[in-house]
Specification:
With 261 residues, this protein is of the alpha/beta class. It is 42% helix and 20% strand. Strands 3, 4, 5, 6, 7 and 8 form a 6-stranded mixed beta sheet that branches. A two-stranded parallel sheet has the order 1-2. The relative contact order is 0.14.
Length: 261
């Protein structure tokens, strides 16, 4: 299963420091819990599990897990991804240890198309023509979640995790990068470290219309939230938001061959 592959890829890291593995299970019904409990039994000192009886959503589940972190650094791995480079953590932590001005290190990755059983290497090319916060806001600076290692102290200082729960943020990554970008530097380590598994249906590529509507209503709240956080830098632009959402729904209609709604 994909969750086993993700966990094993973390356990197989070659590192000279201790790690803890924290997993939030968002009311899964596919047998994932049994798999997780089995890992916890085998590695009781490493695993911390958080089980939700009711679906929390991605942002809230993530925030509740991050509240339990004890470590100096946080590395992320989505449950349908895995780390294919066994020195991933070691290399990224070395960058952070050697330069205090860098707060986050991210890498290249490869895509795995599950249906075609094909891999494709992706090298990230980010525009650096403006300040990081603006590049992130405009979608010109891309970071893939499962490639990231960042300082826990940035969360403690600049991120209100309870807001992720309160406002039901539909994602956890972009909003977090936005909240810390003003206070630290991001570093792109030019190596491929994780595999991004692509299936036809997921949270970000949902084939369910109601789920999509709900997601983008919450994403609009998140968009306004970040604009209110940095009023001197960012403006909420209703026209721009509308254009963005219309594009998402056009792609949805094309993928589902349903143009009625």
């Amino acid at each position: 299963s994909l969750i086993r592959k993700a966990i094993d890829s973390v356990l197989n890291q070659k590192i000279d420091f201790l790690i803890e593995i924290l997993i939030g299970d968002d009311a899964s019904t596919d047998g994932t819990r049994d798999i997780l409990l089995n890992y916890q039994k085998r590695y009781p000192n490493i695993f911390t599990l958080l089980f939700h009886e009711k679906n929390q959503g991605t942002g809230s589940n993530w925030a509740q897990v991050v509240k339990l972190v004890n470590g100096k650094y946080i590395a992320l791995c989505d449950d349908d991804d895995y780390w294919h480079y066994e020195y991933k953590l070691q290399k990224q932590v070395e960058v952070l240890e050697s330069n205090n001005s860098i707060g986050l290190v991210h890498t290249n990755y490869r895509k795995y198309f599950i249906n075609k059983e094909k891999y494709k290497e992706i090298r990230i090319k980010n525009s650096k023509t403006k300040e990081l916060i603006f590049s992130l806001f405009d979608g010109e600076y891309t970071i893939f979640t499962s490639s990231v290692v960042f300082r826990n102290s940035l969360i403690e200082k600049y991120v209100i995790l309870d807001d992720y729960i309160k406002y039901r943020f539909p994602i956890q990554d972009w909003i977090t990068w936005m909240l810390i970008a003003k206070y630290t530097q991001f570093y792109h380590l030019n190596i491929s470290t994780f595999t991004y598994c692509l299936s036809t249906n997921s949270v970000t590529r949902s084939l369910n219309y109601e789920k999509l509507v709900d997601r983008y209503e919450n994403e609009q709240i998140m968009y306004k939230y970040i604009c209110n956080k940095f009023p001197d830098e960012l403006n909420y632009d209703a026209k721009r938001w509308s254009k963005y959402v219309n594009y998402i729904f056009l792609v949805f209609a094309y993928n589902t061959k349903d143009f009625k709604k």
